[in-house]
């Protein structure tokens, strides 16, 4: 090979590397510019005390030996207790707006599901939806002396369905009402996630193996999930809030901080349980009690069709589809969710 040819190839390689580096730098600059523009918008939630609301802290050790973090808020002598069950990769803090709105008139029980928030990490074999239903039964038994209403978002709604499947006798007497928010009774493995059909099939085919691999390398991955990354902000805003221009950057940051606090191994442990979840046959247990179903019309994770399937199985339930709203609806549209919950609780006969 001649010296001229070698230099030419080195020059071409250098140009390609330089072009690639420039492309990466341009993408990083564009990302930073996009996030910067979002953060410069008026933020009406900038002073909201996220993560600062506190109740009477308790600990429940489950029948299989895991410690769950529980908080009790509101007046102890309230005639009705509201039990709030949070979603996948979140914590009890995700109910900030609902807790703030209901705590004056209702006794509130909030809890971190196993492996989430301040609750103890569970082994992979103990991360199932049925076990979450058992946990909820134990929370009710220990911390709810009178009648209650159950509210569940996403995986929290599935937890309520698991309880209905395993402890149907609780509904009607002990449990007087239920709200299922942005959730599904099954077939999550068939979601398109807003992708074209062919691409969606590819994603679902490779996802289980990819998630499993991530879980095995979770400790290493968690070291790289540094605070406040622009990419994490944009992903949370897109998936959790449908890239809404109206959502507060502070709210997005707060949601992202809960997701980031969930270890990668926990994400991987619960993924199969969510994909295999199927409680459509248990929904009839909820039919005798007032039930509200709420979903955003832009929810890609638990789309409106899943809420409509739940409503079809519960003819007496009230379905609310909120326009221009995505999966984290209780944080994106707290006023609508709060009004729905208050209307539901007014229908409870004590």
What's the short version?
The protein is α/β, with parallel strands linked by helices.
Tell me what portion of residues adopts beta-strand conformation.
Answer: 5-15%
**Mean pLDDT over the full residue set:** 84
CATH topology: Rossmann fold
Low-confidence stretches: 3-34, 193-204
Strand order of the largest sheet: 1-2-4-3-5-6-7-8
Question: Domains counted in the coordinates: how many?
Answer: 1
What is the CATH level 1 assignment?
A: Alpha Beta
- CATH architecture, by name, is 3-Layer(aba) Sandwich
For the record, give the distance between the C-alpha atoms at the N and C termini, rounded to a whole number. 91 Å
Seen as an oligomer or otherwise, the chain set is: single chain
Sketch the major β-sheet. 8 strands, mixed
| Number of helical regions | 12
Helix content: 40-55%
Query: Please, what is the CATH homologous superfamily?
Result: Alpha/Beta hydrolase fold, catalytic domain
For the secondary structure, the number of strands is 8
Topology pattern, helix = H, strand = E = HEEEHEHEHEHHHHHEHEHH
Tell me, what's the shape?
A: globular
Summing up helix and strand content along with how strands pair, one would put the structural category as: alpha/beta
Pfam families: Abhydrolase_6
GO molecular function: catalytic activity
InterPro entries: AB_hydrolase_1, AB_hydrolase_fold, Carboxylesterase_BioH, Epox_hydrolase-like, TAT_signal
Domain AB hydrolase-1: 82-339
